[in-house]
Design brief:
By secondary structure, the chain is an all-alpha fold. It is 53% helix and 0% strand. The two termini are 34 Å apart.
């Protein structure tokens, strides 16, 4: 996919049914374009733990934002929150894939997102607190 011409990139492959409806879709490898080496002096286990915790924050945060669907004060805000939630899901996907790559297990993002017990998640408590009012949810986004 060419980054130089976004519209041409989105239309590429439309004739064979492989067209992309949004930038960034259609990748088999969520780590596409990411340097997957572990930097010198960095403990791979610590890097994997950090990626897992950040991925958990992003996944749980996206779920909390989804709770505002059809409930936000204005339609534009609802759409913006949905887009932020989708961005967070993309971040979780990349971070979970990086976790599986760095820890050497080769597990994928579904293994981390769906196939763990609740007590295995390492997100910060703030991310999982109940939705609360709109002001609380906005303050949580800034934290």
């Amino acid at each position: 996919m060419s980054d130089e011409h976004l519209s041409a990139s989105l239309a590429a492959g439309a004739e064979d049914g492989e067209g992309r409806w949004a930038f960034g879709t259609g990748f088999e490898d969520p780590l596409h374009g990411v340097d997957t080496t572990v930097p010198d002096g960095v403990d791979a286990g610590a890097l994997a733990a950090l990626c897992l915790a950040l991925g958990d924050d992003a996944l749980v945060g996206a779920q909390r934002l989804a709770q505002w669907t059809t409930d936000a004060p204005e339609l534009e805000i609802e759409l913006a929150l949905a887009n932020i939630g989708l961005d967070l899901l993309g971040q979780a996907r990349l971070l979970y894939a990086r976790t599986g790559q760095v820890d050497g297990t080769g597990r994928g993002e579904d293994d981390y997102a769906y196939w763990r017990d609740a007590d295995a998640f390492r997100n910060v408590r703030l991310a999982e607190l109940p939705r609360g009012d709109f002001a609380f949810s906005m303050a949580r986004l800034l934290a």
